[in-house]
Specification:
With about 775 residues, the protein is of the alpha/beta class. It is about 50% helix and about 15% strand.
């Protein structure tokens, strides 16, 4: 794709805005280097990466921190003699700490199936040696720790011991020599790695010693007493030893980094990718953007689209629907100046570039674009004084240069093509160009004022006409498109709005009447009708949204009431089971009460989950049916003609159910022989499984409580809880809950062949 296309459609400005959301310099640089992908697979993968990244950021609350530019250290490591300095290693520590935090955050969502996100960011071996070595040798401020090596610790201990001795000797010296009045500061200081006393310059000859330096004002001199000379010499030797030991530590750490250079580079690249991804998420938040579907073929469809640059700076930008119908490959937009024709064309081109680059765009859900390999643009004043060409000549030269590249995977944007020459010939040329683009099966978006081209749009198959709308009374633009009609140019109204003298306007109107080609009255009427239609459509859409919201609120209210009643029934069922377990009530009474509770649950089952009932004659032994109250399938064992009931085996539990509580099951039926004396499976043999993976701890415990209630109602003897391995946090929460649940007899981890520490098996009382 030509760089000119990016400049004309202002794609670099979008990348500049994106880079402003990055937290690091390498991330910002990577944002500026983004370009459209070549294949549909790459575009879709980038879209999936954004969607998974946005979901992760929203759920985890993870926030990116700044990290330094480290691209230069990798070529430096190619030399075997190269040693990374303390600053470079500390920068690596910051980088790897951030990478570790990001990996751990994402690891907490292992059940969410975010494979693309994990592979793009963290599909590399972790540089454990480097992380451990740097963590052991550098502190939180980036300084080398004493514990980095035994020799370094020994040297530093000696240096600290010398400091303590010097401090004591200096204090004694000041008292003995009565130099308190001579001191500028109470304590000694260091100059050129030697302990010295800051004394007033006029006291420098009061005692023997060496003057090392003066302050800028000259009032203070840094004086080394004779008794400190030998100690300072020793200190110099120790400082040299300290630097040598520190260099050995740096060599050691550099060796670790060199051993795991590929892993460290991958970690760095992964963080840069993460920074770019987080910048995309922030960009989407800035203008409510999203990824849109990109297809191999098809008509472009942008719903409630806004020009991305305008959407970033002005929240009140009017959205517009830009779409071609099936079989259409060109759109011709007409209407008055300043009505938004050029913005409409630029919106299509810029959103296309962004979508193909994996960027979120300001368009509504349901939008889609075909993948264009090339986007060509003729827009604005192409005139070049340096090259001595007019606007029309420049347009023709560009068309000639790119024409052979245009094919069925191209988008061609023509804004006022042919406007720089005779209107009749320019319109004819524009029609011919669009005809040829249709033959090449390219997609074309055109803006025009030519009456002939407007008529062409209405009459040509495969071309859709559209008009920008204006307020019928004020002639101000509404920044909306009306389809399958053309619009007036209203040049005189625009000139009047911008203050052109009335005398000039009156003469222009007279000339227009004399010419006899004034169709403004008809087009004004079309515009008024279109505005009215759009207003009616808006009212219908608002009413639809209102009804959907009302329905959602009612459903939410119903669900709350249903959940409340269900919990009450479950609580009563648990009480019944506990009373039966403690032999306070008999088995017959317990079954009666549980049956009443089950009937109440059936009464509050959502209507939308009920399938159409079938007649009792459809229910025969061996037929698979669905028990609507539980949304479970079972097999009919026998029927009771008199009571219109069927005995159904559901997961090992046999129960009598009314025929109107049953519905057809999806699974195939199988004939069942029911010999005399056959008994249904005992409820105690029933095993219920609950899968808690992917839930937060509080959600998981709530789900587990519901599963326990259901198991007790059905008389199940065992419960299998799938919580996954992960970090083990969810498993600990589950076990803590089971310890104090009264209906649990015992629990343990499953055998390795049945899930190991990823599943807990529970035996119920």
């Amino acid at each position: 794709m030509e760089s000119r296309t990016f400049q004309v459609l202002e794609f670099p400005k979008i990348l500049g805005a994106l880079s402003g959301f990055a937290t690091s310099e390498p991330g910002a640089a990577a944002c500026l280097a983004i370009h459209p992908y070549d294949t549909l697979e790459s575009v879709r993968r980038a879209g999936t990466l954004f969607e998974q990244g946005a979901a992760w950021v929203g759920e985890s609350g993870f926030r990116m921190r700044a990290f330094p530019e480290l691209g230069g250290i990798f070529p430096h490591l190619d030399s075997e003699l190269a040693v990374l300095d303390q600053d470079a290693l500390f920068a690596l520590k910051i980088l790897l700490d951030l990478a570790k935090d990001a990996r751990e955050s994402l690891a907490g969502f292992e059940g969410r199936d975010w494979e693309v996100l994990e592979k793009e960011l963290f599909a590399y071996a972790w540089p454990q040696k480097t992380v451990s070595g740097i963590g052991r040798c550098l502190d939180a401020e980036g300084q080398i720790k004493d514990e980095s090596s035994p020799n370094l610790m020994s040297v530093r201990q000696e240096i600290r011991a010398i400091h303590q001795r010097c401090t004591k000797r200096v204090k004694d010296f000041i008292l003995q020599e009565n130099l308190g009045a001579a001191m500028q500061d109470e304590f000694m200081t260091v100059s050129s790695d030697r302990y010295v006393l800051p004394i007033k310059a006029n006291f420098k000859n009061k005692t023997k010693g060496i003057i090392h330096d003066y302050s800028q004002t000259g009032e203070t001199c840094y004086f080394e007493p004779i008794f400190l000379v030998e100690t300072n010499n020793k200190l110099q030797e120790l400082k040299r030893e300290e630097r040598a030991e520190e260099y050995k530590v740096l060599q050691y750490l550099t060796g670790l980094v060199r051993q795991e250079q590929d892993e460290v580079r991958d970690a760095y690249d992964g963080l840069v990718t993460l920074d770019v991804l987080m910048a995309k998420v922030r960009l989407a938040d800035a203008y409510s953007g999203r990824t849109i579907e990109v297809t191999e073929e098809g008509a472009p469809r942008l719903l409630k689209a806004r020009h991305p640059l305008l959407a970033l700076t002005d929240e009140s930008v009017h959205p517009v629907n830009i779409e071609l119908l099936d079989g259409q490959r060109a759109m011709i937009v007409s209407g008055g100046n300043a009505g938004g024709k050029t913005v409409c064309l630029k919106t299509v081109g810029l959103i296309g570039l962004m979508a193909f680059s994996g960027l979120p765009v300001p368009a509504a859900e349901g939008s889609s674009l075909p993948l264009w390999d090339d986007i060509f643009v003729i827009m604005g004043d192409e005139q070049s004084l340096e090259e001595n060409v007019s606007t029309f000549t420049a347009q023709i030269q560009y068309l000639k240069r790119v024409w052979d590249k245009v094919d069925g995977h191209s988008l061609f944007i023509l804004d006022e093509f042919g406007a720089g020459t005779d209107p009749t010939q320019g319109a004819a040329l524009a029609q011919a160009v669009i005809d040829s683009l249709l033959e090449k099966r390219a997609t074309a978006f055109t803006a025009t004022h030519f009456p002939a081209l407007k008529a062409y749009a209405m009459a040509t198959k495969g071309v859709r006409a559209a008009s920008v709308l204006f307020d019928p009374s004020t002639k101000k633009p509404l920044f909306r498109l009306a389809y399958d009609q053309v619009g007036a140019s209203i040049a005189l109204d625009v000139a009047r709005e911008h203050g052109l003298p009335a005398a000039i306007l009156e003469r222009a109107e007279k000339y227009l009447l004399l010419d006899g080609s004034d169709t403004s009255a008809v087009l004004d009427r079309l515009n008024a009708m279109a505005v009215k239609k759009e207003a009616e459509l808006d009212a219908i859409e608002d009413e639809r949204i209102r009804i959907e919201r009302k329905r959602a609120n009612l459903e939410q209210k119903f669900e709350k009431e249903r959940t409340k009643i269900l919990k009450e029934v479950q609580s009563k069922a648990q009480d019944v089971v506990k009373q039966w377990k403690t032999e306070r009530i008999g088995q017959k009474e317990a079954r009666k009460k549980l049956h009443q509770a089950r009937l109440r649950i059936e009464d509050i089952a959502p209507e939308r989950k009920k399938e159409p009932v079938f007649s009792f004659s459809d229910i025969v032994p061996g037929k698979k049916v669905s028990y609507l109250a539980w949304n479970k399938s079972g097999t009919v064992l026998e029927i009771n003609e008199k009571k219109k009931q069927a005995k159904v085996d559901i997961g090992g539990v046999a129960m009598w159910v009314k025929a109107d509580h049953l519905g057809p099951a999806d699974g195939p039926s199988r004939p069942v022989a029911q010999p005399t004396g056959t008994k249904a499976a005992a409820p105690g043999d029933l095993v219920i499984e609950v899968d808690l993976r992917g839930n937060r701890a509080d959600e998981a415990i709530s789900e587990l409580e519901r599963a326990m209630d259901a198991a007790l109602r059905k008389g199940a003897g065992k419960l299998e809880i799938v919580h996954g391995r992960g970090t083990g946090a969810l498993r600990r929460e589950v076990h803590e809950f089971l310890k104090y649940y009264p209906a649990v007899e015992n629990f343990s981890l499953a055998p390795e062949d049945r899930g190991g520490d990823g599943m807990t098996e529970v035996t119920l009382k």
